[in-house]
Amino acid sequence: MKKISFTINDKPVEVEILDENTPLLWVVRDNLNLKGTKFGCGKAACGACTLHVDGEAVRSCSFAVKYVQGKKVTTIEGLGTPETPHPVQEAWIQEVVPQCGYCQPGFMMATAALLEKNASPTDEDIDNNIINICRCGTYYRMRKAIHKAAALKNKSLNI
Question: What is Dmax (Cα atoms) for the chain?
Fold first, then answer.
């Protein structure tokens, strides 16, 4: 057994795993019981499993857990709270983005990472950075929500 220590959603954790190459997705879902991060393709193509490692958007289905040793991981559960949602979560609610909703945590995590780097993304910035896949085709509503999230975040920061 191998022990891996890291912080997840601002809480220190230590997990024991057989194989340190186990995808982070399965450790988050199965060992830590955080079910918001979804399995989609298992090949880092669809983005349903996106979460943050030290603030960077990562496709956790193909990211070995050994790489989070000593790092900070944030899942959709740690992005905001029901009382104080993250601007991305608030925008998703206001724009009624989800249809089936399965892929939405990954989209929200990718969007939150984008907004940390680019406070006011253009449509082109969104197209070049938010490359997750939605089978329901809610891309138009997501684009509106991304622009709204940027405005909400900038307003809260007085930008």
Answer: 49
